Structure formats: C-alpha cells, structure tokens
Amino acid sequence: MYRYRHLVENAFGRLKQYRAIACRFDKLKAHYEAVVAMACALLWLPM
Predict the structure, then answer these.
(1) Which range of residues forms the domain containing residue 25?
(2) 12-39, pLDDT tens digit by residue?
(3) 16-20, long-range: CB within 8 Å, 24+ apart, which pairs?
(4) pLDDT confidence bin for 1, thresholds 50/70/90
(5) How many domains does the chain have?
(6) What's the pLDDT at 47?
(7) 15-40 burial, b for 16+ CB within 10 Å, e for fewer?
(8) Maximum distance among all Cα pairs of the chain, rounded to whole angstroms
(9) DSSP state string for 1-47
(10) In the prediction, which pLDDT does 5 show?
C-alpha cells in the first residue's frame, strides 16, 4: 500500500513543478484539466 502511495505522491510532486498547475492560474475546469493533461504527457514522454 505504501508503495502505491509513494508513486502517487511523487507524481503530484513532479506535476507541481509546473507553475500553472501549482498556482491554478486557469479558473475554468476544462482549461485546468487540459493543462494537467499536457503536463502529464510531458512527464510521460521520454526527453
């Protein structure tokens, strides 16, 4: 159980590196979800 919790917390930590997500600049739900989806895609793709 701790292992999965650790993975989720690390994922949120990496997402918070993007300032727009951490500060929630986009107030509309659709815009915020789009920014989160783009950040997830950038984290998932190998650089």
Answers:
(1) 2-44
(2) 888 888 888 888 888 889 998 998 899 9
(3) none
(4) confident
(5) 1
(6) 61
(7) beebeebeeeeeeeeeeeeebeeebe
(8) 34
(9) -HHHHHHHHHHHHHHTTSHHHHHT---SHHHHHHHHHHHHHHHHS--
(10) 94
